[in-house]
Amino acid sequence: MASTSASSQSELIPLGYNWQVRFIHNPEHRSVRERYEAIPPDHDGIPAAEESLGAVVRVLRQVGGCRACIAPCLHRGACHDPDFGSARSVVLHVTLLDVQILDMLYLLSSTTPVHLYIGDPLTTGTPFDTYSPEKLAVPESVLPGDPIFSTRTERVTVLGAYLHPADDSAQYGLTVGHAVVPQASFLPHAQLLPRPEKDRRHVRNSRLALQHVGQPLSSPSVKVVERALQAYEAEASLLFADPQGSSSGTSSTSDPRLIARLHQYKVEHEMLRNALARPHELDIAHACAAEAIIRPCRASNHRGEVEPAEAGGAHTHLLSWALVRMSSRAGDNPRTLHAQPRTLARGAAVAMHVRDPNIERPLGPYRSGVVNGAPASVVVGGYVAREWAVFPAPGWAGIKFAARGDAGALITAALAGEREGSTAPLALLYAVPERGPYGLVTPLSTIVRRIRDVTGMELRFQRDWGRDENI
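and the corresponding C-alpha cells:
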C-alpha cells in the first residue's frame, strides 16, 4: 500500500500555497499512468466542481494568449490517501501550454483538487513530420476510419463517415476542418469580431466556410510516399547487406527468412514507386467547405446538457468540420450505421472505430467511452467554450479514449430495440488534449445543420433511405 501511494504522489507533485488541492504532473514521467473517469450526470460533486471551474477559468482568461482545457471528472486513486482524496474523487483536469500560470497559482481559488498537465490542449490532425508509418500502402478503397492526407496543410486526419445527397448525384466525406484550413488554431466567428453597428445585423460566416473549395486530399500523400521510400531503402541497406567475415558463414542471400523479407520489400518498394509515377491517382477527394471557428452560443438553453460557465451565460462553442467530395476509391458507411444522427446525452455509452493500416495504434482500433456528466471548458484567446468530452468507459484497459491521430473519427452509439448490431451516428471527434484522457466532440446534428446552411445540401448517411430519413 505504501509503495503504491508513493508512486501516485511521485507522478502528481503538490504545487502552490494551498498544496492540498493543486498538483502538477511530474515532468520526469513521460507517460501518464493516472486514471481519470467520466463524472456521472447526477453526481453530487458537480455543483462544487462547476463553481471551482468558473474560478479557474476567470484566472486563465487573464493570461494573454492562453489556450487551456479544463474538465471536471473523477480521479481513480490507487489508494485512500489524505493528500489525494478518496478512491474516486472529483477533480479538475487541466491541460495547458502556458507555464507562466505557475506564477499565478495564488489566484487559483478552488475547493476542488486541480490536476495540471503541461501539453497542447487542442491537438487536431497529425502533421506529416510526425506521421511515421511502419508500412505504407495505397488502399483500393477508403473506408470510414481511414487516414486522409492534405498536401497543402500537411496534416493527416481521419475520414469520419460518408454523406449522400438525396439525388445521389455525388458522394461526400466528412472529417475535421483542420484537415484543409491552413490556420492551426480556431478563428473567431465573424459575429465575435468588432464591426460597425450597421453591419452587425447581417453577419454571415459562409465565406469563411467556402474559401477552401478545391483543395485536394490524398490517400496517401506524395510527400508521405517519398518519405516511406527513403525509409524502405534505409532498411534494405541495413537488413540485406551481406556481412563481411561472418563467423557463421551465413549470408543474407542464403537465409530463407531474409529471402522472404527481401521479396516482400521489393513488392512494397515497387508499389510505392509506381504510385509516385502517377501522383494524380493518389488524390481521392476535393474539399467543398470547411470551418475551424469559435462561434457564439445562440441557444437560450441547452435542455440541461450544457450550462453557462459564468453568470450571464456568455460563452462560445468550437466548431470544426470539412466536407469533401470524393473523386476516386470511395467506399461507403457500414450498412449497420443508421441514417439519422441521434442526440448526444450526458452519461451515454459511446464507441469509436479508427482504422489506419499504415501504423500500429497503441490504443487499438476500437474504443469504448462514456460522455462526461459535466461539460469541459476550453479557453482560447480570451473566449470560453463549453464542449462535450468523452472519457474511457469504466473498466476499459486504456487510460485514454483518444489520441491526436484520431481527430475526425465518428462517435456512435448502439441502437436498442432496433436492427441487431445497428448503430447511430452521434458526434465527430475534433480535438484531444495532449495528455488528457478524453476527447472533445461536436454533435453531428450541429455539424450537418451548419453544412446545410453553408451549402444548401440535404445529406444523409445511407444512400438508399427514403426522403423522410434525410438529416
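(Above: one complete record from the training split.) The helical segments are 2-11, 46-60, 206-210, 222-239, 256-277, 444-455.
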